[in-house]
Amino acid sequence: xxxxxxxxxxxxxxxxxxxxxxxxxxxxxxxxxxxxxxxxxxxxxxxxxxxxxxxxxxxxxxxxxxxxxxxxxxxxxxxxxxxxxxxxxxxxxxxxxxxxxxxxxxxxxxxxxxxxxxxxxxxxxxxxxxxxxxxxxxxxxxxxxxxxxxxxxxxxxxxxxxxxxxxxxxxxxxxxxxxxxxxxxxxxxxxxxxxxxxxxxxxxxxxxxx
Length: 210
Prior knowledge:
Number of helices: 1
Number of domains: 1
Mean pLDDT: 85
Distance between the termini: 61 Å
Helix content: 10-25%
Radius of gyration: 25 Å
Strand content: 25-35%
Low-confidence stretches: 1-30
CATH topology: Jelly Rolls
CATH class: Mainly Beta
């Protein structure tokens, strides 16, 4: 009787171990999220007007070269991080500046992302001094005709000191490129000369959909 009970006990113990394994697997962490980060997130480089070769970034078109600041155009705002940052402008002829970067890992379809960056407005940008918004697009081409998804838009940046902005979006596709652009305030009837300063871009982190 003892031998039978002991054998039955060993059988039950083994069976419980085997059948418990799928339950454990169901509760493991989802590792499909690939961490995406920005190359040169603090926009380091030699201060210059119309910078065509900011490390990691390309002008979005021929009229779209960012400026590496401070120094050029009279902009003297100290960097938030590192030695430099970039400035983008809007113009009164309904054109604006933008830059594009190929990501180290593409944004993934249906994933929610969030990130933080520092934004400010310069009041000494050679007359381009009005508040603007930051718009960020997803694309699979650096071509200026292919801004595929407007990922997120900031509010109008009307303060001269650096402030952190945490932005979030859901990617509608797998995007290899992001495009950042300076754009006019909402409900603007006439285009104007404005600017936005950008520094200290964090990594993209997963977030929960609203």
